Amino acid sequence: MMVSMSEEFKVLEGLFYTKEHEWVKIADGKKAIVGITDYAVKMLRDIVYVSLPEVGTLIKSGEVLGSVESVKAVSDIYAPLSGVVVKVNEKLNTTPELIALSPYGDGWMVEMEPSNLEEVKNLYTASAYAAYLDELSRKEGNESKRE
Questions:
Q1: Structural domain span for residue 70
Q2: CA 123, 125, 130: angle at the middle one, nearest 5?
Q3: Is the separation of the CB atoms in 121 and 40 below 8 Å?
Q4: Domain for residue 80, yes or no?
Q5: Is residue 145 helix, strand or coil?
Q6: Domain of 52: which CATH number?
Q7: pLDDT tens digits, 92-136
Q8: Structural domain count, the chain
Q9: Is residue 93 a contact partner of residue 50, using CB atoms and an 8 Å limit?
Q10: Could you give the C-alpha distances from 86 to 5, 27, 46, in angstroms and in order?
């Protein structure tokens, strides 16, 4: 189910979000699937390359997990939770545009085995993330009026 906020960006219920625009879905209570949000995809525009960690990489929440390169810029992807990378989305090596086509589906990036699920308490819920995006768009609107 989608949270309604601005018509521009999709925010899905049941996921957790970071301030840096990553999402995480907790599945089976023991694995975490990570990707970037619709907002991040639309800010990056044409995604041309994705760099993901190796399976077995131990990572801490907030550390760089990988990067996404677009025609516009290279952006780091940050781990929303601490844990071990158990799977990467190999399809993104040849078709990085899957991220733009389906950021919450086929465009997922890594699957992790979280070491501490309590860390989700530090992340945004869907409604809190939607409110954060509304706040960002208001700030951007105010800044463009000043230019």
A1: 16-116
A2: 110
A3: no
A4: yes
A5: helix
A6: 2.40.50.100
A7: 999 999 999 999 999 999 999 999 999 999 999 999 999 999 888
A8: 1
A9: yes
A10: 33, 13, 28
